[in-house]
Amino acid sequence: MGLEHTSVTVEPGAEANESISAVPMPAHLDPWERRLLADPDLLADLAFAMGGPFHVMYPPRVGHNIRAFHAAFTQAGVHGTVYYGKKANKAGCVARACAENGAGVDVASVGELTAALAQGVRGAELMVTGPVKADELLWLAARHGALIAVDDLGELDRLAALATVSEPARVLIRVLPTASASRFGMTPGEIDDALAIASGHDSIRLEGFSFHLSGYDAVARAELAGELIAHCLHARALGHPATTVSIGGGFGVDYVAADAALEFTARVGRQWFHSGKSFDSYYPYHFPVPGAAMLAQILEHEDLAGRLRDNAVRLAIEPGRALLAHAGCTVFRVQGSKTRHAHGRPYRLLTVDGTSLSLSEQWFDSEYLPDPVLWPERPGAVTPTSVGAATCLDSDMLSWRRVPLPRAAEAGDLLIYPNTAGYQMDSNESAFHELPIPPKVVLHDAPGDRFRWTRDGS
């Protein structure tokens, strides 16, 4: 899913002697984000028009990320396919960017499948994943010629009955990685049974094997991909085409600079958080070899690229977060503030006009660490600031961490959380308190280095 965290160790003691203001964690900003922040009117106009919190999407960045993955495949001389993990963001403009830039879409429900089709993604460009899929999803996927990653023997039997000899279902067998405790994938014995089922049904076309690994280890992915090449060769000996290996997602995203991440990890403690809050783990917000560079690393390990070429195997990947890297942000309006004290020192506690349901990391018992940007930019003194939501839940915090904002925030100011398109925006949205779910605004480049905008049609 791309949500795996890394653990941190908080040393006891000495916290009272530390600054109550956390170290700054400024996010890497794309040129389009700098243009947005530099515009004297657009953010204020959008906030007025939306009447509450909103998300901003910039689809050209999605296209850029897709092309970077394609370039890594080309550089390695490998036949590769990118399937966007749609669960990472529901925005229709992302699926449209996939259709326009030669990427498929990985879906796991009828809703996701039909949404992708509506944005121009062809049925044969879909990968259908998820455990023990319902008959309706299997039938629709087979009908549209999607590639279906089968997770269960009973599912394969049902699919064989739903598909037809004239239009056989395109299937990958999902493999349970060795020593994995995952509930997904098939054991070696189950794989043998699946091969026998596929051999016995002309309505099944076995096109290869897939897996998904937690974490962000390039070497582990390369080595398991090599094992799946062997599975393909065995399946071919049994008469199946078996030309595809899918290694799933888990391509890291680089949010902040290495020095900021290292200082945070070395010094983090309860003294930096409102109410003495602490977390056991965080997403690795600095990732030195992100996205397409990680794919290149995988292909280089033990010459995986050469083995794929030599055996005429296509490599499929299913990035979610990495395809959305730097493609969106989330905007809240400050409604009010209070002064609180920790260790005898003051800090600000803001209330904004939305909830942490729109910044989903909090709902995985962790903290979204990239600093929000306070807009408009004005002179002032650095002010440690935590950010709370407009609900009656004391635990509904967008930033427990006391972020060192460049000045004291005032009612009416905007807080822009950067790089939130991947999993943050809408994994856990809810109309809690009957508050509307924040809309997505799509930016389009216009003449004169300007933006035009529309609301996303998803």
UniProtKB/TrEMBL annotation:
| Any Pfam family matching the protein | Orn_Arg_deC_N
Q: Which residues belong to any copy of the Orn/DAP/Arg decarboxylase 2 N-terminal domain? A: 66-276
Tell me which UniProt keywords the record has, alphabetically.
Isomerase, Pyridoxal phosphate
Keyword Cytoplasm in the entry? The reply is: no
Q: Is-annotated flag, keyword Transmembrane?
A: no
Segment Disordered: which positions?
Answer: 1-22
Q: Name the InterPro entries for this protein.
A: Ala_racemase/Decarboxylase_C, De-COase2_N, Orn/DAP/Arg_de-COase, PLP-binding_barrel
Q: Which SUPFAM superfamilies match?
A: Alanine racemase C-terminal domain-like, PLP-binding barrel
For this protein, what is the EC number?
Answer: 5.1.1.1
The Gene Ontology terms for molecular function here are: alanine racemase activity
Q: Which cofactor does it need?
A: pyridoxal 5'-phosphate
PANTHER family from the xrefs?
DIAMINOPIMELATE DECARBOXYLASE, GROUP IV DECARBOXYLASE
Q: What is this protein called?
A: Alanine racemase
What is the species of this protein?
Nocardia niwae
